[in-house]
Amino acid sequence: MTENAFGTGQANDNALPDPATLSYEQARDELVETVKILELGQMSLDESLKYWERGEALAKRCEVLLDGASKRVEEAISSRQQPESEQ
What we know:
The protein is an all-alpha fold. It has one domain. α1 runs antiparallel to α2. About 10% of the residues are buried.
């Protein structure tokens, strides 16, 4: 091993950030990469399952964030449609 090498080359459970901490764009981008890796199909079943589980968590995060954004848009639209006397 050289002086410039970092780590052992083995990822641990803390190697990736918790999906709940990611922005929509971060989760989406990682999900796209995860799908590409899974589509290659060049890993063991255990590795594939770990990527699948990560992909599911990332997809759920994207869904939660999109639902929140959708609700905000709906609220903004409904508040603009109320007559001024109701606001």
